[in-house]
Amino acid sequence: EYEGERNAEGERHGFGKARLPNGDTYEGAYEHGLRSGHGTYRFKNGALYTGDYLQNKKHGKGVFFYPDGSKYAGDWVHDQRQGYGEYLYANGDTYTGEWANNKRHGQGTYVYKDTGSKYVGTWVNGIQEGPAELIHLNHRFKGRFLNGKPLGYGKFIFDIGCEQHGKYIQPVQEKEEEEEDEPPLPVEPKWKASAITKLTPWSPHDEEPAPGEG
Asked: Hey, where are the domains in the chain?
């Protein structure tokens, strides 16, 4: 069902409202029969998108409200979250930063609502990876991440004005006789402290460890 403007060829063109066969509804701009321009699309499952369209795809700026209560506001490219945007998760966590192919990718800040901690740094395909800072209430960690875990040289910076330098090492997994199809349990990297100093300018971009390490 469609009510709204059409062009000389009879295509939906201009402003209109439509109910789709699956029960979704759209109200907004059309060009040559396709959703293009600004519009609001309501999904039967309770989700809602309001923003820019280009040839039936979410493209430009828009806000998407998901059925679980989460919400994304930002850039879209061909129906994907891409560019810069803010995501509020159902559990109250937030991510603000860069996106590519629907995933957190590039520079971004993730805030954990329960603890108030913040990850500020680099993401690759939705995973924390690269130089970053993990900020807690009275101290922070500065280092590099790989697959969502800190790895390699880094430092803990305490608000009282000192730093603990060291590195995260990946423990070697003990090989045990076990069923082949059981995946090995992930092993958490272990922190090995090497020195406590006053505040220093070392950052995770430096390849050399800070003084007192090695």
From this structure: 1-78, 91-170+189-198
**pTM across the whole model:** 0.85
Q: List C-alpha distances in Å: 50 to 1, 25, 87, 166.
A: 20, 12, 15, 48
Considering the segment(s) 91-170+189-198 as one domain, its CATH architecture is Single Sheet (2.20)
Give the whole-angstrom CA distance, residue 82 versus residue 115: 28
Does domain 1-78 fall into CATH 2.20.110.10? yes
Of the candidates 60, 63, 65, the one whose C-alpha atom is nearest the C-alpha of residue 83 is: 60
- Under a CB-based contact definition with an 8 Å cutoff, are residues 98 and 80 in contact? no
128-186: per-residue pLDDT in tens? Answer: 999 999 999 999 999 999 999 999 999 999 988 899 999 999 887 666 555 556 666 67
